[in-house]
Write a structure and sequence with these properties.
The structure holds 2 protein chains of 2 kinds.
Chain A: H1 2-21, H2 23-57, E1 64-70, E2 73-75, E3 77-78, H3 81-86, E4 91-97, E5 99-104, E6 109-114, H4 119-128, E7 132-133, H5 142-145, E8 152-154, E9 157-159, E10 163-166, H6 168-174, E11 181-185, E12 191-199, H7 205-208, E13 211-213, H8 216-223, E14 229-230, E15 232-237, H9 243-253, E16 257-261, H10 262-270, H11 278-299, H12 304-315, H13 320-351, H14 359-363, H15 380-406, H16 410-415
Parallel strand pairs in A: 6-13, 10-12
Antiparallel strand pairs in A: 1-2, 1-15, 1-16, 3-14, 4-15, 5-6, 7-8, 8-9, 10-13, 11-12
Chain B: H1 2-14, H2 16-29, H3 41-44, H4 75-78
The chains are: A alpha+beta, B mainly alpha.
């Protein structure tokens, strides 16, 4: 055993010096290999972590959201529909939501304006969290929307008529904060000034970067929405296993309604960044193409210099198995170094630099993009998959030419001249 | 490599509170989507997008936002009733 280890050490020593003799070629190979691993690993880490994070965060999303569709587009939801939904067996409660978008031409950004939901739900949440406390908010009853007064409190910021609680992305983009004023052009052309009551935490940017919390009363004034309408409603079902049944009953009772169940929301984010998607397939096909070139280069045989080296080694007494071992160590060193470097660089890239390489593509045309740090959901399974995707194809591609070169007659190998 | 896995494991535990804060915000405000792409309304709220999103401008219109290339149509779109 000791002899075997010693032999391997000598072979590894020789392999390293042999690799260093062809520095440019081998470093080029290593750099390209590392780049491929880096791209694949970054994509894998990013997509897996964002999907996992989405599934954990969105598990608290509404069980059913019911929209009204007119001519294929969202329409305002009549408050009168709420009673029809409440009368369906299995429905525990129905809550209205008021939300919409506001385009800020000053910074060319879209904001999401949202009215915090009603007291009943919020009270439950307040029990569960010490950080988030809801004092009071608008009710399903359209008449009571006018009476919304003291409303909502989040991390010490109190939402009252004439005030806003804004997401950290908006605060950063507009360079504003608590106590500042923000003008809005209302539906009738009038300018409405809102005081910033507080900012949502920067830790929550992945869900709240572009959010603006506004009172129901102000929301209706800003967009000119009648008290008899809301944006959509959320439904709580008594028995979670009946969610799909209740959704189909809603659809039957209100043909214009479009129920979206929580499972569909979660599935939407599960299919995001799927490898079949446009940009993803471009990344994957580039990596696969690079690998094909790699494999082709290796499978088409060794260079004349390498063949001559093998010939000399065999002439001085090396056996075929020694040559194969040497080439095995060479392949292992290159592929493992590329794999480890690529994975570590990808980990740093995704979890420490906020995926800086992917950022321009992810930002797209939006001027308001959340600054978020992903939780590193990395496990052994992902690393094993990556290993089999990158190291194994390279190793397989190098086996045949090595075998052919190792069994060559030393005399004919040494006669071969020219690189 | 082991260090990387250990770091990932520790970070996951350390960020648990942050994840819970986000989950609580989603529950409190009844949010439905992540704020990933703010370029258009249907990319901001992917799960709430209307069924004709791809053709919002005209029939046979192609998707023209970069974020559209990261997402798939919801499964229900391909399911036959």
């Amino acid at each position: 055993m000791r002899n075997w280890i010693e032999k391997q050490r000598y072979i590894i020593d020789f392999t390293i010096s042999s690799l260093l003799r062809r520095k440019v070629k081998n470093f080029g190979l290593l750099a390209l290999y590392t780049l491929i691993v880096f791209i694949l690993a970054s994509t894998m880490f990013f997509t897996y972590s964002i999907k996992k994070e989405a599934s954990l965060i969105l598990k608290g999303a509404p069980e059913i959201v019911v929209q009204k569709i007119v001519a294929g587009r969202h329409d305002l939801f009549p408050v009168s529909y709420i009673d029809a939904i409440k009368s369906i067996r299995g429905v525990a409660s129905v809550e209205s939501r008021l939300w919409g978008y506001y385009y800020d031409s000053l910074v060319s950004a879209n904001y999401t304006l949202l009215t915090p939901p009603s007291t009943a739900n919020a009270a439950d949440t307040a029990k569960a969290s010490t950080k988030t406390t809801v004092v009071e908010s608008e009710s399903d009853d359209p008449q009571s929307a006018n009476n919304s007064k003291p409303l909502f409190e989040l991390n010490g910021a109190v939402l009252e008529p004439g005030t806003l609680i804004i997401g950290n992305g908006i605060a950063r983009l507009r360079n504003i904060g608590k106590g500042d004023y923000m003008p809005f052009r209302a539906f009738d052309g009038n300018v409405m000034n809102f005081k910033i009551a507080g900012t949502l935490s920067s830790q929550s940017e992945l869900v709240s970067s572009d959010l603006m919390l506004i009172t129901g009363e102000d929301f209706r004034k800003l967009f000119g929405i009648d008290n008899n309408y809301v944006t959509d409603v959320t439904v709580v079902v008594n028995n979670p296993s009946e969610i799909a049944t209740v959704a189909s009953k809603i659809k039957k009772r209100l043909p214009q309604a479009r129920p979206i169940i929580r499972d569909e929301i979660l599935r939407t984010y599960d299919s995001i960044f799927n490898w079949r998607g446009g940009m993803m397939i471009v990344i994957f096909s580039a990596a696969v193409l690079a690998f094909v070139i790699f494999a082709w280069d290796k499978a088409s045989g060794l260079s004349a210099g390498e063949r001559r080296e093998i010939g000399i080694l065999k002439a001085v007494g090396w056996e075929t198995s020694d040559v194969i071992q040497m080439k095995f160590w060479e392949g292992a060193m290159i592929s493992l170094t590329a794999f480890l470097t690529g994975v570590i660089l990808a980990y740093t890239h995704v979890f420490f630099t906020g995926s800086i390489v992917f950022e321009p593509a992810l930002k797209g045309w939006s001027s308001l993009y959340p600054n978020f740090e992903l939780t590193p959901f990395v496990n052994l399974e992902q690393l094993t998959t990556l290993f089999f995707l990158t190291v194994v194809p390279y190793t397989v591609a190098t086996i045949v030419p090595i075998w052919r070169a190792a069994t060559i007659d030393p005399d004919s190998a040494m006669r071969f001249t020219g690189e | 490599m082991s260090l990387l896995l250990v770091h990932a494991n520790f970070s996951e535990s350390a960020r648990q509170a942050n994840l819970e804060e986000k989950a609580m915000l989603v529950k409190t405000l009844k949010l439905t989507d992540l704020c990933l792409f703010t370029e258009a309304r249907y990319t901001r709220h992917l799960s709430q997008a209307d069924l004709n999103t791809a053709f919002q401008d005209h029939p046979m219109s192609l998707e023209h936002f970069p974020s559209g290339s990261f997402t798939q149509p919801p499964e229900r779109m391909s399911e036959r009733p």
